[in-house]
Design a protein that fits this description.
It contains 25 helices and 3 strands. It has 688 residues and is an all-alpha fold. A 3-stranded antiparallel β-sheet has the order 2-1-3, with helices on one face. The radius of gyration is 26 Å and the shape is globular. This is Sodium:solute symporter family protein. Belongs to the sodium:solute symporter (SSF) (TC 2.A.21) family. InterPro entries: Na/Glc_symporter_sf, Na/solute_symporter, Sodium:Solute_Symporter_SSF.
């Protein structure tokens, strides 16, 4: 789930995506606070002089130039009849016209057309050109074609699809907000993308590519047994069901802010289009629509960055204002895990999180396994990592643009932005609002990220539910027609269910909290299962299950109290200084007073950095699993199939046993291939 996810609130929490991820889901709580307010834009010219500064170093220290003069000036602003109100500015500066609607609708039409092509035209052409050979029939079987594209996909579109799946609409909006509120500490996450890519390249991906699985949770049954396979499959399914409506709701809120169209008018349209092309086209349609949507995202971000920089007077002016405002920061040099962003949490915790969220989860591996061989997988990993680093770098730069644009009149203090995550929308309407079509491109870019997360999640749900929860309990194999119907029914059911779940998301904030917590507590144990299975051949299934349960319960306890503390205002992190010197409009000074009196809370275990959630859960799982081996015993290395262990560890396995097991596996693989051909032939006979 993707998802994998970026922080935009004042406290750590996690994501749904892409694609349900831990970091992206943190911004959801602050988004809910602003769902009843429309987008507000900003006019800034220096007049009134009112400043407020919050100190990072000393939590209890608040520096204010003059509290009494601030209150007086703010009061005069509120009573000045010549000043426009926030609501008036909001309604007068919404520039979403016919051209913008056309751009947005065009994107939806293209996505639907791609699904129609792969679901009907390409499939019909394939049937006509098929010779009827057993091998061709097996490779073109329904499940293989629908879930992994027949393992014949190309590197470039798969790489773009991975980027689109990882960067959800939530993270696209939240990254720049994170930089605006807390500075460039989070930008060091770009280093971890490269580190996680290298580790996955050598340690994890060779195992799954060699096994050629459809669902990654099949590996857990091969390595540990059915209990862990079911446990992980259920965790993934529940987390994804909770994440998908959130992933589509946040971009719908953005659309509502810039156009005024009701959320429940746009979400059914988008959900139906996404469900259609995912249902009829399978993974091929998902990958190619993701590729188109990625191009839209890159185009949107580049237009904003280039035009915004030119409007502000160049790169030097942008960096100068951020330097003076204290935004250019490096992570704190400390081992304290409760510090929001330290160098250790970003580098170590971030690397572990990225391995799980973007490299070895079901959604990512399903795309890697759609490629024909390991060489293509490595090319895809390199290209995916490069493209992802570039996109997130641009998102971080958007945060610097936001501060450089509003350095003397903070929209959060004046309530021009009712929630942190509305900052990108305000920036875009300031930079692009006067040019017809560009706001439409921005909304299309945000929805592109959301559509990719939704389509990826639906396709992965179909894979996990069918392969891990339904097929293992069936006595007889399904025919090709039955398999195709089952997969499409799962996609259609959960896709259309998102329409109803969006109502629940809007009305009940507890659902958002539950989605956040589920993403946090599932990714850690899953990472631990992967590490124990691939890197610790002596650990058996019982020990691993104990470690996973302990990890799940521990993270659940921490996340529950962290979310509760966030809702009650007990978990507060230090924020960087802001200013309202240049505001020329009427604003509510009560918000200014709240910001002046804002102080960080005393840190405890519930302040655990959101970057540590996945890594902390994985470490707990591995440590407890190894300790449990003292009670449950260990595996004999001679009995372990080396195909289930990372190639970097093969040198430590008994040499003779590696050769014997590999030789024994060959006839089993051939027999499995024969069985697949026979099954397909029987299915074809039934259909005929």
């Amino acid at each position: 789930m993707a998802s994998s996810q970026l922080a935009g609130s004042s406290t750590p929490s996690t994501t749904t995506t892409t694609t349900s991820t831990t970091v992206a889901a943190e911004i959801v709580g602050s988004t809910v606070a602003g769902i009843k307010e429309t987008m507000k834009t900003l006019i800034t010219t220096p007049t009134a002089r009112t400043t407020t500064t919050t100190s990072m170093a000393t939590p209890s220290t608040t520096t204010i130039s003059s509290v009494s003069s601030t209150a007086a000036i703010s009061s005069s602003l509120a009573n000045d009849p010549t000043k426009q109100s926030v609501a008036d500015l909001s309604s007068s500066l919404q520039h979403f016209g016919i051209v913008d609607y056309c751009v947005f609708v065009l994107m939806l039409i293209i996505c639907a057309a791609i699904g129609f092509y792969f679901g009907f035209i390409e499939k019909k052409q394939k049937k006509k050109g098929q010779k009827g050979g057993a091998t061709e029939q097996r490779r073109g079987s329904e499940a293989l074609d629908y879930l992994v594209g027949g393992r014949k996909m190309k590197v470039f579109p798969v790489s773009l699809s991975l980027v689109a799946s990882f960067v959800s609409g939530i993270s696209l909006l939240g990254t720049s907000t994170e930089i605006y509120v807390y500075g460039t500490q989070y930008a060091f996450i770009l280093i971890t993308l490269a580190l996680s890519g290298v580790i996955s390249w050598y340690v994890f991906l060779p195992v799954f590519c060699n096994l050629q699985l459809t669902s990654t949770y099949e590996y857990f049954e091969m390595r540990f047994g059915k209990s862990i396979r079911y446990f992980c499959s259920i965790l993934f399914t529940v987390g994804m069901i909770l994440y998908l409506p959130v992933a589509i709701y946040v971009p719908a809120l953005t659309f509502n802010q810039v156009s005024g169209i009701d959320i429940h008018t746009i979400t059914p349209v988008v959900c139906v289009v996404c469900t259609f092309y995912t249902c009829v086209g399978g993974l091929k349609a998902v990958i190619w629509t993701d590729a188109i949507q990625s191009v839209v995202m890159y185009g949107t971000i580049l237009i904003i960055c280039i035009k915004g920089t030119l409007d502000l007077g160049g790169l030097g002016a942008v960096l100068q204002r951020n330097w003076e405002g204290g935004r250019l920061k490096i992570p704190d040099m400390t081992w304290d895990p409760t510090v929001r962003l330290s160098m250790t949490s970003v580098i170590i915790g971030g690397t572990l999180h990225k391995i799980q969220s973007s490299d070895v989860n079901q959604m990512s591996l399903q795309r890697f396994l759609s490629l024909p061989d390991m060489g293509k997988v490595k090319q895809c990993m390199f290209l995916f990592t490069t493209l992802l680093v570039f996109l997130l770098f641009c998102c971080c730069y958007m945060g610097l643009l936001s501060y450089a644009s509003f350095y003397d009149c903070d929209p959060l203090v004046t309530k021009l932005a009712s929630a942190d995550d509305q900052m990108p929308t305000i920036l875009v309407m300031r930079i692009l609002g006067v040019i017809p079509g560009l706001p439409g491109i921005f909304v299309a870019g945000v929805f592109s990220a959301a559509l990719s997360s939704l389509s990826t999640g639906l396709n992965s749900l179909a894979c996990v539910i069918s392969e891990d929860l339904i097929k293992p309990v069936l006595k007889n194999p399904l025919t090709e027609w039955q398999t195709g119907f089952m997969l499409r029914f799962i996609v259609a059911f959960f896709g259309l269910s998102c329409i109803a779940l969006v109502f629940v998301v809007e009305k009940m904030g507890t659902v958002l909290t539950l989605a956040t917590m589920t993403g946090a507590v599932t990714m850690g144990p899953l990472l631990g299962f992967y590490i124990c299975g691939i890197c610790m051949p002596w650990v058996n299934g019982k020990s691993t299950l104990i470690g996973g349960v302990v990890s799940f319960l521990t993270l659940g306890w921490i996340c529950f109290h962290a979310q509760l503390g966030q809702m009650q205002g007990l978990v507060r992190h230090p924020k960087l200084p802001v200013s309202v010197e240049g505001c020329t409009y009427d604003y509510d000074n009560s918000t200014l007073w709240e910001r002046q009196n804002y102080t960080p809370s005393e840190r405890n275990i519930y302040h655990l950095s959101f970057m540590w959630y996945t890594g902390f859960g994985g470490i707990i799982c591995c440590v407890v699993a190894n300790l449990a081996c003292l009670l449950c015993g260990t595996n004999k290395l001679e009995d372990i199939n080396p195909d289930l262990i990372s190639p970097v560890l093969h040198r430590f396995l008994p040499t003779r046993q590696v050769e014997v097991i590999s030789a024994e596996m060959e006839p089993l693989k051939k027999e499995k291939s024969k069985d697949e051909v026979i099954t397909v032939k029987k299915s074809l006979d039934v259909v005929e």
